Write the structure tokens for this entry.
Amino acid sequence: MIASWVRTFVQGREDRRPLFERLMTESYRQAFNMALRLCGSSTEAEDLVQETYVRAYRFFYRYDETLPFVSWLYRIMVNIHIDDVRRRQRLRTVSLDQSTGTGGSWEVGDKNALADSALMETTLEEPLQLGLKSMNPEFRTAVVLADVEGMSYEEIAEIMDTSVGTVRSRIHRGRRQLKEYLERLYPGQYEVTA
Amino acid sequence: MNCTRAKSLLSAYLDRELAGEQMLDVQQHLRECTPCAVEFESLRRVKQMLSQTPVVEPDADLLRRTQEAVFTSKPAKLTKSPAAGLVAMASALAAAVLAVTAAQNTPHSPAAVPALRQVEAKVSPMVVSGSDPLGGYAPVIPASVRRD
Ligand SMILES: [Zn+2]
């Protein structure tokens, strides 16, 4: 009985493959643009998009077709993105700790920077994207969902698995950070005067 | 409404995410207070700039590459997939059934039920809540970076 249940489950996923393929074809452009705003470079955005769909397909049996697919997809993407950023921050902290006094990891960092700049790719270097990049990932995600994607606080709360109050605070602090970044780095261009 | 309160509500006001009465209170404050009105205008500009960011066309090959990644299951990832979890559960349950059957063949054995519970406890988290990409993340955020 259990063996047939497993067969049914795997079969069920295969049966839903055409639906998944259709949803993926319809949504991947939007997903790529969302990822690009979160990551800032097309290489990283492509990786994020692929990881998101791989995970979405693995858990597709949980997707409720009456809900918007993109919201469900973004929930997965946002989790992966925030986890990635946190993991990299931890790694950086560790490598800095280990290199205390030797300066070793600074050299590694510089080499990486050179490799990055040598890549021919779409990197969104405009001030706005640099500002987004400077924010913490929760603020960035909330601001991008609200202002680029035009989502309501309730939808964002659903995607970020948090309360509307937290979303409100993240968006407000995020926009203020972005505004201060632009005013500080590009004086005269973004200031609003009375 | 004082400035501190008004400033904290400016983004929600901009997004029309306040209740009617609060919307009116903020509106009234902005008419009377220049510093808050300036702050509001700069937040409005940030939102406007973000909403006007151009749509970037992805690489022509991205869809095909992503489909390939999705539908070509890798052995390393299979072990984590829900199907693999079910297979593991199936064999664990089969073992439990065997244990119960064996226990029933030897009446008065108290070992059978705990054995089953143990197997269930081992198996269910993997299927029900383990490796859940939707159930929220548990961010490990150092206190120094956490701001809300
Ligand atoms: Zn004021």
